[in-house]
């Protein structure tokens, strides 16, 4: 018996990695001392010595079952952006800037085309942020994954000055909530979405959406890095940031609020992307469940003093959706 | 329709995380400023400022299909050690010490018992190395994973002084290869192993092995961190290290050698754990395939000057298995 007979195809994997090599290496910054092929990626961190008090920030995420939808329509080109952008938002929610990224790719069978496409997408997404794709792991696991299914996860490491860490400790009663719009469901709720749109033609134009389901549902998770950078460079004082992912505002906004304080969010103050009412109607999903599963158009919520919120609105596209109140809990008005 | 109907069970996941919370938090060192529940883990890196030239090292790995064997016999307690120990070996192969770890856990259905068991195992493995389990992601993906299957991957970040980075550049002709023994197949070749032992009673005592297949096959990936530390503390000069994982010596030893040099390995100079000849006979696996898939008892190979190799042998259990030669390529004699 040989390894190939057990369903592991070493050659195809090597071929796809060879194809993606140039794109991965194009993400390398001068800090990368060792990348592809090393037992671990090496990232020169001399710059951290110049910081007053460096704090590393690390986050691991996956894109969930959005991969299945992408594979169904044969277009994985956005999935790398989904993953990398999701990750950078988790970092900036703490005030941090990204340093590097590592991916984890696994499937029942490593088809060369799909693997090369995913690696290219990851490399492009890293390149767009100016950070290296420092390493990763690609695993073929017959018996773990369903036929044709893939999983895509990754880890981003960043850094922040200790005194610049954002978070609940900074938040005060009366702070405003400034929401930056999402581009759609981002990477959350896709198990429900797939159930709702099952049997529908994903490529057909849907007038209500102004585009096809494929376009509305595969649009990548938006990165708020450019907006965050602009606010920071203009000295806008941000207290805390909530990245609205799985669990919606109910699970994510509280992570940006201190014990004892809550928030009120006023419906109708921000544009809800048409994909959400469309999914709600099609799937007969209760309103409160919609807010529990989806971001509903609230991609990122900045918590900041009133005067800073007004300034921020002149710098980025954002909507004042509510405020911090003395009663704990989130209330949707 | 609700999220639960799409096969996603938010409550069970929350319950398992609650059960594992204390064990995860027990891994925290004073450097952990934010862990569980944050958008990203925060790790105070003031210590890096005291280094001459800090270089971060990061590696992502998975345990592969060893999970399926563990689930089959209902014992996932070693899988966290498999993952964490694999990762620390990849770091020390470059001379680095670990700082923190993040995990990625995914399954078709997050059964509370299994999830709590895996998190406990990960926490214990991190605790054993003295590093925090700084964060992670746990995802339920019906449609991606096979019924009852799990995947377990993770990322370790460490640091090394630039002048202390090990690697091919340091290796010289005549250097010796000192192998530290493996504890078995570690985390490689399990798709083949599962095919070979299919239908066998994994719990039955096997005289040839001196233990059951369960014991021989689920023994965790060995961490060479204590040995590495002892050698380092005693000032043993190591040139390069190869961690022998997927692809065996053929794929991994070259990663520790410079262009233009090769290595000779002399069979019979190290003890081959009995599980390997057992699997070879049972699966009628060609000898060269055995060396291509398994570590064959060579868990970690240190490349170091002859005099240092002799000193190292007095400090750790290791076997001189070969040497660096002027002809490129690996030769098994």
UniProtKB/TrEMBL annotation, chains A, B:
Domain PurM-like N-terminal span(s) in chain numbering: 55-160
EC number, UniProt record: 6.3.3.1
Catalytic reaction annotation: 2-formamido-N(1)-(5-O-phospho-beta-D-ribosyl)acetamidine + ATP = 5-amino-1-(5-phospho-beta-D-ribosyl)imidazole + ADP + phosphate + H(+)
One Pfam family of this chain: AIRS
Keyword Nucleotide-binding appears in the UniProt entry: yes
Coiled coil spans: none
Cell compartment(s), UniProt: Cytoplasm
Broadest EC class assigned to this enzyme: ligase
Pathway: Purine metabolism; IMP biosynthesis via de novo pathway; 5-amino-1-(5-phospho-D-ribosyl)imidazole from N(2)-formyl-N(1)-(5-phospho-D-ribosyl)glycinamide: step 2/2
Single GO MF annotation: phosphoribosylformylglycinamidine cyclo-ligase activity
InterPro entries, alphabetized: PurM-like_C_dom (IPR010918), PurM-like_C_sf (IPR036676), PurM-like_N (IPR016188), PurM-like_N_sf (IPR036921), PurM_cligase (IPR004733)
Keywords, sorted A to Z: ATP-binding, Cytoplasm, Ligase, Nucleotide-binding, Purine biosynthesis
Domain PurM-like C-terminal residues, every copy: 172-331
SUPFAM superfamilies linked: PurM C-terminal domain-like (SSF56042), PurM N-terminal domain-like (SSF55326)
Xref: Gene3D superfamilies: PurM-like C-terminal domain (3.90.650.10), PurM-like, N-terminal domain (3.30.1330.10)
Nucleotide-binding recorded as keyword: yes
Domain of life: Bacteria
Main location class: cytoplasm
Cited HAMAP family: AIRS (MF_00741)
UniProt family annotation: Belongs to the AIR synthase family.
Protein name: Phosphoribosylformylglycinamidine cyclo-ligase
Gene that this sequence comes from: purM
